[in-house]
Design goal:
The complex is a heterodimer of chains A (about 400) and B (about 260).
Chain A (H helix, E strand, L loop, with lengths): L1 E10 L2 E6 L4 E6 L5 H16 L4 H6 L24 E9 L1 E10 L8 E9 L2 E7 L25 H7 L4 E2 L3 H5 L18 H8 E4 L2 E4 L2 E2 H7 L3 E7 L16 E6 L8 E2 L5 H14 L6 E4 L8 H17 L3 E5 L3 H5 L8 E8 L5 E8 L1 H5 L4 H6 L11
Chain B lengths: L3 E5 L3 H15 L4 E4 L13 H12 L3 H6 L1 E2 L4 E5 L3 H5 L24 H4 L16 H16 L8 E4 L5 H9 L11 H6 L4 E2 L2 E2 L7 H13 L1 H7 L1 H20 L10
Parallel strand pairs in B: 1-2, 1-4, 4-5
Antiparallel strand pairs in B: 6-7
Helix pairs in contact in B: 1-9, 7-9, 7-10, 10-11
The chains are: A alpha+beta (about 400), B alpha/beta (about 260).
Chain lengths: ~400, ~260
């Protein structure tokens, strides 16, 4: 199953955009260019296709709740405000499928209403609904995953693939376990809640070697160079001050410069280590969503670490057949992307003269990269776009 | 048809002017990339005319690849440097050979210790050039070609040298004055001389992008008048028409001989 295109119309600054994603999709752009809005639009598409769209669902997916009137595009240059927010996804799974939904934004409550919804197979309508349909349908819920017409149909696989989509934005207090994750989902919260438990679920001994998911612990310790090991255990007085709030399970680190019994928990560890473990867990946990987004992938990471983690993370995403959309402001993240692999794609997000978001896929020849023009430099120098122009 | 245009210019306000004017001439909302060099460790050469010089030299060997081997490709590269540089800066006359200097062979003009220590022997105005707008323009265009490592016209590179600076084009759009290109430092001497310029508030003497965004609509509205009064604007207009619109009309973009 290959996603060919995602279309977004009339949603905030995304007046009319479409892009062809790969499996690993990185968005770069100036602050306020619309990167996070793209992640949110995909979230709304996921909710509309597989469930319904209301505040509760949007919050669970990590989407900012806006005033209802602000969901639709409101550009000065628009002659007339659009009636609906239109979202679509096209994919190929032997045949080409095209799902489209038109939603009206909430008026009297927090529920978005389905104006129309349809699925095409090779340009032929498989199923559809609209305000004019004769069937008595609840306009508050999506029918793609529940209509009997599509029972057992292959096109439902995309619904299952996109269903658990959420926008992950880990924060340090949640990763340290000192505050609860307000967006807790299985296996790991959007802000990093329950990380120790999720790590424990994929930490195992294989032929005498410790592995986290598919990676040897030694590979992970290469990324966290001060650590000589880590484990998951209940907090103890010896490694966590009893005055610190804690989760049932904590990550217990060993520092290679300290005595063996001087272990400490994620509360005292460097935040970079926690972000590394978070990303790896998300990419490898069997219950992680098959499609998800990470806003600010590079947060708290040293540039070199960000580059190496990007390489490993991308590889894990490809191996597990997942799709990820992520944003970054760190040039070194780009140097960790193998753009020669067509499944790894880079997009520059910018606003045109009228403020409308424009998405450009960036492709760079191998020859240019080998000439000593790494992606990070091309980005900083303005060649890729995705930079504030007037600074 | 919308083009992707790279601009290497002295600063953000020059970038704004060039963008607006190109869109006006072509009647399209083109896509732009503001290309800038990385500053050195002392924070120098990331901006201004020295930044333009550095960008050209850094990219001279890989220019074609930088323009065409990143998609979206750059259809046209615009390089801008103000003519006041030729009038005021000794470094750009180092290689004119108007005076003897033993450091010429050994050091790069941008990093020459003689310049840093205030001992550069170059005398301004340089006697190798005609001392007027066209003389400055010719000199700097030749310099830019040298920095880029090409003496011939490149079909993808448009060089513009506004005289005395891009601000002269703005003045020409707002005021009826003769010889506008001969006004030295039109920003300070005309636009920012008072707090108010044709109803636009000018806070201090610093060039601000917010002020420029108010000045630009009239520049475009009055562009025909500007090209009548500014030779440098006329040259720019001609080149844009030839290199962008000419390409479209003739649809022979890849004919290498067309602009040579």
């Amino acid at each position: 199953m290959i996603i060919k295109e995602i279309n977004i119309k009339n949603f905030k600054s995304l007046y009319d955009v479409s892009f062809q994603p790969g499996k690993v999709n990185v968005f770069i752009g100036a602050n306020g260019s619309g990167k996070s809005t793209i992640l949110e639009a995909i979230g709304i598409l996921s909710a509309a296709m597989t469930d319904r769209v209301n505040n509760n669902v949007l919050q669970r997916k990590g989407i900012r709740l806006s005033a209802s009137s602000l969901y639709k595009s409101k550009f000065k240059t628009m002659k007339r405000e659009g009636l609906t927010v239109d979202l679509g996804i096209q994919w190929v799974d032997d045949e080409r499928y095209d799902y489209t939904v038109h939603l009206t934004t909430p008026t009297d409550d927090d529920t978005w209403k389905y104006h129309s919804e349809s699925i095409n197979q090779a340009e032929n309508l498989l199923w559809g609904r609209s305000n004019r349909s004769s069937a008595l349908l609840n306009h508050n819920i999506g029918y793609f995953m529940v209509t009997e017409t599509l029972n057992g149909h292959r096109c439902r696989k995309m619904g299952q693939y996109i269903e658990k989509y959420g926008i992950y934005q880990p924060d340090t207090p949640t990763l340290r376990g000192i505050i609860a994750d307000t967006t807790q989902v299985a296996p790991i919260g959007l802000n990093g809640g329950r990380m120790a438990d999720a790590l424990k679920e994929i930490l195992k001994s294989v032929d005498g070697d410790m592995k986290l998911g598919t990676l040897y612990i030694e590979d992970i310790l290469d990324l966290i160079d001060w650590a000589s090991g880590f484990d998951i255990a209940a907090p103890k007085k010896a490694n966590l001050n009893p005055g610190v709030p804690s989760t049932r399970q904590v990550i217990e680190f060993k520092d290679r410069f300290l005595k063996a019994n001087a272990t400490f928990t994620g509360y005292d560890a460097s935040e970079g280590a926690l972000y590394v473990l978070f990303m790896l867990c998300l990419a490898m946990h069997p219950e992680s969503p098959t499609m998800f987004a990470i806003d600010s992938f590079d947060h708290a990471l040293n540039p070199r670490l960000a580059k190496r983690l990007t390489e490993i993370f991308s590889q894990l995403i490809l191996e597990s057949h997942r799709t990820v959309f992520m944003t970054t402001h760190n040039p070194l993240v780009l140097d960790g992307l193998d753009l020669c692999n067509d499944e790894i794609r880079l997009f520059a997000v910018s606003r045109n003269k009228d403020g409308y978001v424009v998405i450009d896929r960036i492709q760079v020849s191998k020859e240019l990269l080998e000439l000593g023009q790494p992606l990070s430099r091309l980005w900083i120098n303005g060649r890729l776009g995705g930079v504030p122009e007037l600074i | 048809m919308r083009k992707v245009i790279g601009i290497v210019g002295e600063g953000p306000t020059d970038y704004m002017v060039i963008k607006e004017v190109i869109d006006h001439i072509t009647g399209e909302v083109n896509e732009y990339r503001r290309l800038q060099p990385e500053p050195d460790m002392a924070g120098r050469f990331g901006n201004g005319w020295k930044g333009v010089w550095k960008w050209c030299e850094t990219n001279s060997g890989v220019l074609d690849k930088v323009l065409h081997e990143v998609k979206p490709q750059i259809d046209l590269l615009v390089i801008q440097i103000d003519a006041d540089v030729s009038r005021k800066e000794r470094e750009v006359h180092c290689l004119c050979g108007s005076v003897e200097c033993e450091a010429r062979e050994e050091s790069h003009p941008l990093r020459c210790t003689k310049v840093i220590e205030g001992q550069c022997p170059v005398v301004l105005p340089c006697r190798k050039h005609v001392q007027n707008a066209r003389g400055y323009e010719e000199h700097l265009e030749k310099m830019i070609r040298m920095w880029l490592g090409t003496n011939t016209n490149n079909k993808d590179v448009l060089i513009t040298v506004p005289c005395d600076s891009t601000d002269a084009w703005i003045v020409a759009a707002y005021q009826d004055c003769d010889y506008v290109e001969e006004i030295e430092n039109p920003w300070e001497s005309v636009i920012a001389r008072k707090k108010d310029y044709y109803g636009i508030r000018i806070p201090g003497s610093k060039k601000r992008t917010s002020v420029y965004s108010q000045l630009l609509p009239r520049l475009c509205e009055q562009w025909e008048r500007v090209i009548e009064r500014c030779h440098s604007a006329k040259c720019f207009d001609d080149k844009v028409k030839q290199m962008i619109l000419g390409n479209n009309l003739l649809n022979i973009k890849h004919n290498k001989n067309i602009f040579r």
